[in-house]
């Protein structure tokens, strides 16, 4: 009886398995007919650009009427792309409680977009700058919304320029204390985001004290010389979510498929990216391939 039962069970399992296999075939056949080829193509196209990254914009452009329009157009026409934008009225917030009328008119326009995170520029001179002055700059940005009685005249964090590459315990303490300062400052919410700009891969002990670090800020040629994307792969204790790359002086013939290849390569390794073909004053205007770059970031 024990044996008979065993055999019968085996037979049952067997037929159940073949029913599952049959059902699977039928299911696949139905899918092949039902899913239009276009959907498959779209999915493949989307995947082929790899992970999405944010557009990172050092906006060192004076906001005379109209000059920020290329950025605002890109932001409003690409709601699926996030933009991190560095605001820099005067190598920092400037000497006054509020920046001039062109800034106070243009900044709130950008700040109102959900896909935008504005950051205030603050120099640190490789941590040699008087930290009281650095704190004062941070406080000035944080006070913008209250001082202007305009909640949209606001930044959501700080971009610390010229942070060190070589490890130094005092420098790390300096940066860590500034990060804590930003994190608890209500006027910089809700993100209270911190970016460091050593412009090269710094000692990895610095990475954890920022939300994002600019590990590359140089020309396209330098990017190629340093073996491009591989440069970012071997950064200890890091992952792409905390890395930012800025590549300027891209030759004009790098466009179309070649620009697509470049953007794809950098997207694989950095969560925030700026790529410009300008080779002088690269942050003070928008290059003629700005729209192509943003479209590739949206792909
Ligand atoms: C864009 O920002 C939104 C809101 O913060 C977030 O949910 C989304 O994951 C971001 N996308 C990318 C690609 O960073
Ligand atoms: C705004 O910019 C324009 C053009 O540069 C300039 O003429 C004007 O004086 C500026 N306005 C303020 C309030 O600074
Ligand atoms: C740093 O700046 C503060 C405030 O202006 C000043 O009191 C202090 O003496 C400065 N420290 C140094 C080392 O210059
Ligand atoms: C804005 O800042 C200026 C200069 O520090 C100050 O005189 C003024 O009272 C502030 N206004 C508000 C509303 O906080
Ligand atoms: C990537 O780094 C961020 C920031 O340090 C951290 O929060 C996150 O857990 C890391 N992710 C992975 C997969 O290691």
TrEMBL record:
Record keywords, A-Z: Membrane, Transmembrane, Transmembrane helix
InterPro entries from the UniProt entry: Spherulin4
Record-annotated membrane-spanning stretches: 20-43
Name of the featured protein: Cell surface
